[in-house]
Design brief:
Elements lengths: L3 E2 L19 E5 L2 H11 L3 E5 L14 H9 L2 E4 L8 H8 L4 E4 H5 L22 H4 L2 H12 L4 H26 L8 E4 L5 H7 L2 E4 L11 H14 L3 E2 L8 H12 L5 E2 L18 H15 L12 H6 L6
Parallel strand pairs: 1-3, 2-3, 2-4, 4-5, 6-7, 8-9
Helix pairs in contact: 1-6, 1-7, 6-7, 7-11, 9-10
Length: about 325
């Protein structure tokens, strides 16, 4: 089964008659990181349609008439929550009155694990950047799907357990890989402040030029402060996310160069969206694997060997051992 992206024009073709119990649960999700996990947990019992595809910024997303029609045909709607989806969040709250609708992050992750921020968000919504936190969504998804398709309950729960083992292995691999970066250079400078959970979980300092939301404006003072950090720490590379304009990062690079510090732009990172469908980076595991490999190599570290629990995933996508 392959996740369908509304942004690629693949709308659902549903009949008007009632669904039979044996048919897959028609599930609409907002972001790809949630959609991929939903597919792994639901298996053949769930059909997933993602509203936001590769390169789509959820902070700025505005639902089209077709998106609303897709939501109207869904049996189950899943979204991350904590204002990540911007104005769409208000639409989804209204859908909760007529359709099973779950704000997955608030339902799965305890308040003591949240990173609070001093802006309109209040809470940093980028929870998938810490694999151990995102893995906590698995029981919520499993129970939501099992309740809607009880004949699939055993399979769904087994899927969640198996995928959970992969995510635990991924979490440990990221931590080991990041630890190989020389301590002085263990600072991740990005355009968008989306990596705070990653930094806390894996022991790397994070500095975003822009705020939590991509709607935040970047000022001259932000550029100067980031340049100072890059020059002082001797940071060899800074990064741009796949949904972000690189102009602010280039401004930091230019300013650092004027002060005698050569800085490169590291490989593109995935923050608010995964990679293209049909690629390793188009999976949640692949997204974090690619991010970590790019960060570690650019900052002077060496990625750890992939654990055995990820061998099947690596073989499927022809990922070579480090």
């Amino acid at each position: 089964m392959r996740m369908r992206w509304m942004s690629m024009g693949l709308a659902m073709a549903l009949g008007s008659g009632p669904l039979q119990a044996a048919e897959p649960l028609e599930t609409v999700v907002t972001i790809g990181m949630l959609g991929d996990v939903a597919e792994r947990v639901g298996g053949e019992c769930v059909e997933v349609t993602a509203l936001m595809g590769p390169g789509v910024d959820p902070h700025l997303f505005q639902a089209s008439a077709r998106d609303v029609a897709t939501l109207q045909h869904a049996e189950t709607i899943l979204y991350s929550g904590y204002k990540l989806e911007g104005q769409l969040g208000d639409v989804l709250e209204r859908f909760a009155e007529i359709t099973t609708t779950v704000a997955v992050s608030p339902a799965a992750i305890g308040e003591d694990a949240l990173i609070r921020v001093q802006d309109a968000y209040g809470i940093d919504p980028h929870l998938w950047m810490d694999v151990s936190l995102w893995a906590q969504t698995l029981p919520v998804l499993a129970e939501t799907f099992a309740e809607a398709r009880p004949e699939c309950a055993a399979t769904i729960r087994a899927n969640a357990e198996a995928y959970g083992r992969e995510l635990a292995a991924l979490h440990d691999w990221i931590a080991a890989s990041v630890a190989s970066i020389p301590e002085q250079q263990r600072i991740l400078v990005t355009a968008h402040d989306a990596f705070n959970y990653y930094g806390r979980a894996y022991g790397i300092e994070v500095a975003g030029i822009q705020g939590i939301s991509t709607e935040t404006e970047t000022g001259v003072a932000d550029i100067r402060a980031m340049t100072e950090a890059v020059v002082t720490r001797g940071v060899p590379a800074v990064f741009v996310e796949s949904t972000i304009n690189p102009r602010t990062v280039q401004a930091v690079i230019d300013a650092a160069r004027q002060r005698g510090q050569e800085v490169s732009i590291g490989a593109q990172l995935y923050a608010d969206a995964m990679g293209e469908a049909g690629t390793a980076e188009g999976t949640y595991i692949g997204m974090l694997h690619a991010n970590t490999r790019h960060i570690v190599e650019a900052l002077g570290g060496t990625p750890a060997p992939l654990p055995e629990a990820l061998a099947d995933w690596a073989a499927r996508w022809e990922i070579p051992a480090p």
